[in-house]
Amino acid sequence: MAILDSIDRKILDLLQGDAKLNVKEIAIRLNLTKTPVYERIKRLEKDGVIEKYVAIVNRKKLNPSIVVFISGKLDVKRFEQTQEFYDGVMKLPEVMDCYLMSGEYDFLLKVIVRDLDAYHEFYSGKLALVPRVGYVSSSFVLNEAKKSTVLPDL
Question: Which of 147, 149, 68, 76 is nearest to 109 (CA)?
Fold first, then answer.
């Protein structure tokens, strides 16, 4: 695990808020010169703390769509068999996130589809064909009360 000081954390906070900030802008906000800020960012990238830079797209501006959370149970006898499920899920572009869960369900998927008909096609024509999928339960998002990509400072 990388050891981060308060300046590293401030740089990360700024970049998580706006990845288009350049080194000069970050240096000004932190009251530092450009060189140490540049070196810190490069170290954070090299150490894998910063994985990549992305554009966060407003899905509502592109096409009508719905978000569905799918909880489910896997049909496995050995833990190693879960890889068949993961391999199948990785091929589904509708799946935005996939988590292995403890508790009542084995997995949680965040899925985005055009509408209910598209969800039915996804469920019956794709998800049902993924190896090791057992029982599933779907919940449809009515409103996104909070959505963040900024990690909390733990």
Answer: 68
Give the three-class secondary structure for 107: strand
Class of domain 59-140: alpha beta
Give start-end residues of each CATH 3.30.70.920 domain in the chain: 59-140
Residues 143, 60: Cα–Cα separation, whole Å: 12
Give per-residue pLDDT as tens, 70-86.
Answer: 999 999 988 889 999 99
- Range(s) within the chain of domains with CATH label 1.10.10.10: 6-46
Q: Are 132 and 74 in contact (CB under 8 A)?
A: yes
Query: Crossing angle for the helix pair 34-46 and 6-17, nearest 10 degrees?
Result: 80
Rounded Cα distance between 120 and 113, Å, is: 10
Domain 6-46 has CATH 2.60.40.3080: no
Residue-wise pLDDT for 130-143, tens only, equals: 999 999 999 999 99
* Single-letter residue type at 138: S
